[in-house]
Amino acid sequence: GQNIDQPTEMTATEGAIVQINCTYQTSGFNGLFWYQQHAGEAPTFLSYNVLDGLEEKGRFSSFLSRSKGYSYLLLKELQMKDSASYLCAVIEGSYQLTFGKGTKLSVIP
Amino acid sequence: IAGITQAPTSQILAAGRRMTLRCTQDMRHNAMYWYRQDLGLGLRLIHYSNTAGTTGKGEVPDGYSVSRANTDDFPLTLASAVPSQTSVYFCASSDSDSGHINEQFFGPGTRLTVL
Predict the structure, then answer these.
(1) CA of A41 vs chain B CAs: smallest distance (Å)
(2) Tens digits of per-residue pLDDT, B62-101?
C-alpha cells in the first residue's frame, strides 16, 4: 500500500512563487504525477517524474527525490487562474495511480 | 467524440435503484479506470481495466461492478444504490504500452446523488 501526504490548503499572492510538497511511502515506485484540478472540473496532467531531479515546463516545475520519498511542485509568477487543487499521485507496480488528497491553492491579489 | 466522455453529467437517484454510468474514449487507450472523489478523501480507485476483456478491483470496489467488452467503453454499474455512493465519479484512460508514461486522461465527471 501507499501513504501520500500533501498540505490541505495554501494561499499565495499573485506574481509570487509557491512550492507544494508531497511525501510518499511505497513498497515499489514507478513514477510520480502532478495533476491540476479546477473546482467542478476534471483533473488535468501537469508533470511526471520517474528519476531524481527537476523537470521544468514553463512556469511549472516538479522535483523528485526517490531516496527521501519526496516531491514538490513549484509554480512561478502566480496568476489568479492558478487557483485550483493540485494532486500528487504515485504509480506503484502496474498501471494504477494512488492519489493524495490534494492541496487547494488560493491565489490572492 | 474527442477524448473521454461520460454520461450522464449529473443524476439524482433513489436508494435501492440500479444505475449505470457510461464512459467512452476514442483515443484507443488500452487501460481505463473509474474513480470516485469525495470532499476530504481525494480520488479513490473503484475498478480498472488494463485491456479489453479484463477488469480488476481498486481501493473501494464494494457495491460497484464494471465490464470491458471493447476498447472504447467502460461502464460502471451500481446494482442497488445507497446514500454513501453519493459522489463525483470520474472515468479515466491511459496508454500503458511500453514507451509511454501512462498519463491518465480524465472525463468530465458524473455527479451522483443517492437519496
Answers:
(1) 6
(2) 999 999 999 999 999 999 999 999 999 999 999 877 666 7
Written in H, E and C, the secondary structure of A12-66 is EECCCCEEEEEEEECCCCCCEEEEEECCCCCCEEEEEECCCEEEEECCEEEEEEC
In chain B, what residues touch A42 (CB-CB under 8 Å)?
A: 90, 106-109
Beta strands A18-25; A3-5: pairing state: antiparallel
Contact A46, A34 (CB under 8 A): yes
Q: Which three cell numbers stand for residue A96?
A: 494504477
Longest dimension (CA), chain A: 42
The residue among B67, B85, B70, B91 whose CA lies nearest residue B18 is B85
Report which DSSP code applies to B77.
E
pLDDT of residue B100: 65
B61 touches chain A (CB under 8 A): no
| Residues B91 and B74: beta-carbon distance below 8 Å | yes
How far is Cα A89 from Cα A24, in angstroms, rounded to an integer? 9
Lookup result for grid cell 531516496: A67
With CA atoms as reference, report the closest residue to B23 among B115, B105, B113: B105
- Per DSSP, the three-state class of B84 is helix
Rg of chain A (C-alpha set):
13
For residue B8, cis peptide bond before it (omega within 30 degrees of 0): yes
